[in-house]
Amino acid sequence: MIHITGAVMSKINEIKALIISRDETIFLWSWMTALTCLIIGQGFPPLQLTLLAIFSSMLIATSVYIYNDYIDIKMDEQHEEKKNRPLVTGSASVQTALQLSIVTGLAGLLISAYVNVMMFLSSFAFLFIFSIYSIPQIKLKKRFIMKDLVIASGFFICSLIGSTALTGGIHWQGVFAGFNFGVLGFLVNPGINDSFDVEVDRKFGVKSLAAELSWHTQVQMLGAAIIYIIGVSVFAVFNLGFNMILPIPILLFGLVVLRKLPTIYPEFNAEKVLKTRNTVKAFVFFTHIMYLVSSLNLGFTLL
231 Cβ partners below 8 Å, 6+ apart? Predict the structure, then answer.
């Protein structure tokens, strides 16, 4: 009995370590689904359907990212930060990782199928696209621009999961927000995230935009992302019913970000880029909140 209890606790600790190592990413995708539900429900979406959609996204994100960690063990061993992940350090076994990936993936699909067919198809698309991102025989991660497109698609797909869960189809406000965050992610990811992985990516043949494009181009993409999200926020007000409160704070915060770009433009400096990354992440999260706030029925408009 003691031996069985010890084995169970060991397995639980392994699963906990694997999930914690990916908690930020798992949160990102489930948050995108939650945000879409909140936008659709104007702050008060149906609780049961919303929780099922969030939980499904959370489980599928866990599945695909734990599988990715299994595939990328050799790469992660040579990365300054990723070398501390459980599969590299041995604090979790490959067997546990694969079991967790399979169980969470199936559970996420089952939940989505319980809700409705359209949510199941959206969830399956999430699982399928992010799986072939890692599968060695296909490995979209190694193909030029595909790595960045797959990651960006996650925002759109997770917004579809939320939309189909609540409406059975496409709710244009919620899906529009997800699409825009995908474009934003595509443009900012090379400069503020993948730029730290360039050396390892090139060694293992991963043709990310950060590895293939010049540093100056990556910073220009970052600037274009800020300008884009400011512009589409105005479009959202006049075409999709968002409140006029949306673009003004985004514009002001966007100008703060744009003022920081000249400091990192001349060359890649890890310390300066890290500081800029924190500002950009705050801007992205702030933009998410503003889309939510401007979807609420506030009882007034600024125009």
Answer: none
Give CA–CA dist 63/214, Å, rounded: 33
Encoded tokens for 266: 């001349």
| CA-to-CA separations, 8 to 3, 5, 96, in angstroms, rounded | 9, 5, 12
In a domain? residue 104: yes
Does a structural domain hold residue 267?
yes
Query: What token pair was written down for 274?
Result: 């890290």
Q: Band of the pLDDT at 301, cuts 50, 70, 90?
A: very low
CA distance 4 to 167: 46
What would the pLDDT profile of 215-261 be if each residue is shown by its tens digit?
A: 999 999 999 999 999 999 999 999 988 998 889 999 999 999 999 99
- CA–CA dist 82, 273 (Å, integer): 18
In a domain, 85, yes or no: yes
- The answer as to whether 303 is a domain residue is no
User: Tokens 């181009």, residue?
Assistant: 217
Task: Please report the pLDDT score of residue 40 as a whole number.
Answer: 95
Q: Are 50 and 79 in contact (CB under 8 A)?
A: no
Work out the burial of residue 71: count CB atoms within 10 Å of its CB; fewer than 13 is exposed, 13-18 middle, 19 or more buried.
middle
How far, in Å, are 36, 213, 255 from residue 262 at the CA level? 34, 18, 12
Domain that holds residue 112: 2-295
* Tally of domains in the chain: 1
Q: What is the CATH number of the domain that holds 29?
A: 1.10.357.140
